[in-house]
UniProtKB/TrEMBL annotation:
InterPro entries in the cross-refs: Efflux_drug-R_Bcr/CmlA, MFS, MFS_dom, MFS_trans_sf
Keywords on record: Cell membrane, Membrane, Transmembrane, Transmembrane helix, Transport
Organism of provenance: Parapedobacter koreensis
Entry's localization field: Cell membrane
MF (Gene Ontology): sodium:proton antiporter activity; xenobiotic transmembrane transporter activity
Protein's UniProt name: MFS transporter, DHA1 family, bicyclomycin/chloramphenicol resistance protein
UniProt domain Major facilitator superfamily (MFS) profile: residue ranges: 11-396
PANTHER family: MAJOR FACILITATOR SUPERFAMILY, POLYAMINE TRANSPORTER 2-RELATED
Family membership noted in the UniProt record: Belongs to the major facilitator superfamily. Bcr/CmlA family.
Superkingdom in the source lineage: Bacteria
């Protein structure tokens, strides 16, 4: 029994490392936006587009990885993706053009998709529908810690080296993860030769997943709620550094404090799951998140906002996300077994597609105030709540053994 627990813990740690690649890639270079813009002779708004290109790469790349994970097993596509990520990170480090940075960030995102899709599919493979919500809550702990560490590491690298070093560090970290995955991560689901990679069968598989009402509802509700986080990621460097005058280290500390809301909420979610259903927790969290987002927007529009009030409200907003993500993810994937890879990919693509739109919208609406970020955050939460209340499906996961093939 003890050996089994240690084995499961070891697997979880590896899946957690894979889940952290994406957040580290997003957050580690945020404190360097001003430095990157100055070095590449452009504006911070232009550099923000490299974040959008990363989201677009993740959104589109996951669609490709889903069928590959179902056809060739989990490990081979995962390893290929990590190799692509490392190569693109080196490209980011060596670039001297903002436009090239956007291209390399797009390719970097394509590589990171392997870890994101595979880790979610492996949660479904290793732990099954009944445990998935709790495991996703634990993964949220890793995802929550990553934004605390990433900007701090990024600030340290910039202070003692330069912004190019951020991408070298990302390449080295991912190379270590690649070694662990290659030699120590067991295969959770072997190749399936019957899974065709021709466009028509792939499209049919995705359509089968997409038209499942439970998946559609919770994937879009979770995706829109998550995109409020990405609006914050896109808007906060300018607001915290340029508007409120924080330096890079102070921004890292504020970022860490706000990210701790995700950690606290996701772990509290594991406790609440012993008493309440995932559906009920997600609904209450979205009502709370929408209310906080609207309050934040009102204060920004009326000019009543200040730095500490903004930090507090964003803390509560992202704390709500710590309840939304694990429950909507588990509910979206629970109807699937053989198509878990495709379902995971499509869910991730929806989430990152929404994230790309929200971050791009913040950049497009940029007017040197706090309003664009706050309004987009609020809009994402309200739309998510609307979808959840409008659909309210009866979770297929409540019927054990009822899985799509």
């Amino acid at each position: 029994m003890a050996s089994t627990k240690r084995h499961r813990l070891f697997i979880f740690i590896i899946l957690g490392l894979l889940s952290a690649v994406g957040p580290f890639s997003i957050d580690m270079y945020l404190p360097g936006f001003d430095s990157i813009a100055a070095s590449l002779h452009t504006t911070v708004a232009h550099i923000q587009l490299s974040l959008t290109s990363f989201f677009i790469g993740i959104a589109s790349g996951q669609i490709v990885y889903g069928p590959l994970l179902d056809r060739f097993g989990r490990k081979i596509p995962l390893i290929v993706g990590l190799v692509i990520y490392i190569a693109a990170s080196v490209g980011c480090a060596l670039t001297n053009s903002a436009d090239n940075l956007m291209i390399y960030r797009f390719i970097q995102a394509l590589g990171s998709c392997g870890g994101m899709v595979a880790s979610r599919a492996m949660v479904r493979d290793f732990f099954g529908p009944s445990e998935s919500a709790k495991v996703f809550s634990l993964l949220m702990l890793v995802i929550g810690i990553s934004p605390i560490l990433a900007p701090t590491v990024g600030s340290f690298v910039i202070a003692h080296w330069n912004w190019h070093g951020i991408f070298i560090v990302l390449a080295v970290i991912t190379a270590c993860i690649l070694a662990v995955v290659s030699f120590f991560l067991p295969e959770s689901r072997g190749p399936n030769p019957e899974m065709s990679l021709m466009p028509k069968p792939i499209t049919q598989s995705y359509w089968q997943v997409f038209k499942t009402r439970q998946f559609f509802t919770y994937a879009f509700a979770g995706g829109l709620a998550s995109s409020g986080l990405y609006a914050y990621l896109a808007g906060s460097p300018y607001i915290m550094v340029s508007l409120y005058g924080l330096d890079e280290k102070q921004y890292g500390l504020v970022f860490a404090f706000i990210a701790s809301a995700l950690i606290t909420a996701s772990q509290l979610n594991s406790i609440l799951l012993n008493k309440y259903s995932s559906e009920k927790i997600a609904k209450i969290a979205l009502v709370t998140q929408s209310s906080i987002g609207l309050m934040l927007t009102f204060l920004c529009v009326t000019g009543l906002i200040n730095l500490w009030l903004m930090i507090g409200l964003i803390f509560l907003f992202l704390g709500s996300q710590g309840f939304v993500f694990p429950n909507t993810s588990a509910l979206a994937l629970s109807p699937f077994s053989k198509l878990a890879g495709s379902a995971s990919a499509l869910m991730g693509s929806i989430q990152m597609g929404c994230g790309a739109l929200s971050s791009a919208l913040v950049s497009y609406l940029h007017n040197e105030t706090t309003v664009p970020m706050a309004a987009v955050m609020a809009g994402c939460a309200v739309l998510s709540l609307f979808i959840l209340l409008a659909s309210s499906p009866k979770p297929a996961g409540s019927h054990p053994g009822r899985n799509h093939k």
